[in-house]
Design goal:
Structural class: mainly alpha
CATH class of one domain: Mainly Alpha
Order of helices and strands: HEEHHHHHHHHHH
Distance between the termini: 31 Å
Largest sheet: 2 strands, antiparallel
């Protein structure tokens, strides 16, 4: 089943048009950024913040403009990934998303992370301190790193959901994905924690990351417990029960964290569990209760072994896409440059069919 719902068709079309316009603009903008043309600080660029349309940033630096365009392309790609995960039939009580849409969403998340990583490594270092000080909070380096890590975390979360649905995915694969997801969310949370921002957006993002971190940790301990429980030694079963009980406690904490996130400004509706967590919200309490009863006698006999084992560490599998800037527009090679007076709206309207 393809991702062709009316919501995606409309939103995806607009995103595709705007992204194409930005890519074309980017190749022209690169000419201004080249030192040999001597135009880096000739043009003043103006941007307005979405949260406060009255606050305008005016900067005469072509690398700032390039940074802003790439940042917008990353945001548009994240929006497109989000659209892929919107169920085609909104009338259903359950959130059903096809496997193809989920895989497409993962690809888009990696693409967005690639834009952000390029900004961090190749564009931000070119901006002087006085311009960096004017950047809005969501364009600070730590926030960009956090969003990149979060994109990878959510991509891994989707992969775990696909693994749960697959009959071929082993417990080892599921545990690894859960542990990698946990690492990504931990990195993202750490990055946002470093930012001294008082706005609602950073606080909301921090609460979201805490909620997802707790969910990921619960999943990691659950699958780690299932693997330990396959051992034959009493210590293996005791450690497994400790994992299940920890997972159950973490799930309960994650539900509270979700509520705190939803009630923080701007207030949002609590999303229903989906993907792997829809499965784990039921399985973790059931397994914790069942295994505690099954191995209750061991827990009494082996009290010295009742220590929560460490989770294994894995090399992270998902990597951001490698982004490269396009070629400079050929117009810069003609020696005579003329700026066509055309608004973005007029540019987008060129692609609309005549009626």
């Amino acid at each position: 089943m393809g991702c062709t719902s009316s919501v995606y068709a409309f939103g995806g079309s607009a995103i595709a048009q705007l992204t194409r316009a930005l890519e074309e603009y980017l190749s022209l903008l690169l000419g201004l950024a080249k030192k040999e043309y001597g135009l880096q600080e000739l043009v003043e660029f103006r941007w307005k913040e979405l949260e406060d349309g009255r606050q305008e940033i005016c900067v005469s630096n072509s690398w700032f403009e390039l940074f802003s365009v790439l940042h917008m392309m990353a945001v548009l790609t994240l929006m497109e990934a989000n659209l892929k995960l919107i169920p085609q039939d909104s009338g259903l009580s359950e959130r059903l998303v096809s496997a193809d849409c989920m895989r497409d969403a993962v690809d888009l998340l990696l693409k967005a992370a690639g834009y952000l990583n390029f900004c961090i490594g190749n564009v931000l270092p070119r901006l002087p301190p006085d311009i960096k000080s004017k950047l809005p909070s969501d364009m600070h380096e730590s926030i960009l790193e956090a969003i990149s890590h979060q994109a990878l975390a959510q991509g891994t979360e989707i992969q775990l959901g696909l693994a749960v649905q697959s009959h071929n995915a082993t417990l080892s694969v599921k545990r690894r994905l859960a542990c990698e997801q946990l690492s990504f969310f931990a990195q993202a949370h750490c990055c946002v924690s470093e930012v001294n921002a008082n706005g609602a957006a950073p606080k909301k993002q921090l609460l979201f990351l805490k909620w997802k971190y707790l969910e990921a940790k619960a999943a990691a301990y659950y699958y780690h417990g299932l693997i330990l429980d396959k051992g034959t030694e009493p210590s293996s079963h005791v450690s497994a029960v400790c994992c299940f009980l920890a997972a159950e406690e973490l799930i309960a904490e994650s539900k509270k964290a979700c509520l705190t996130f939803c009630l923080a400004e701007p207030i949002t509706r609590a999303p229903p569990p989906w993907g792997a967590m829809k499965h784990l919200h039921k399985k973790i309490p059931e397994t914790a209760s069942k295994k505690s009863q099954m191995y209750g006698y061991l827990l009494e006999q082996e009290k010295d072994l009742q220590n929560l084992p460490d989770l294994p560490e894995f090399q992270l599998s998902l990597k951001p896409d490698e982004y490269e800037l396009p070629e400079v527009d050929s117009a810069w090679d003609c020696g005579k440059w003329e700026i066509t007076e055309q608004t973005l709206k007029e540019h987008l309207n060129e692609d609309e069919p005549e009626t």
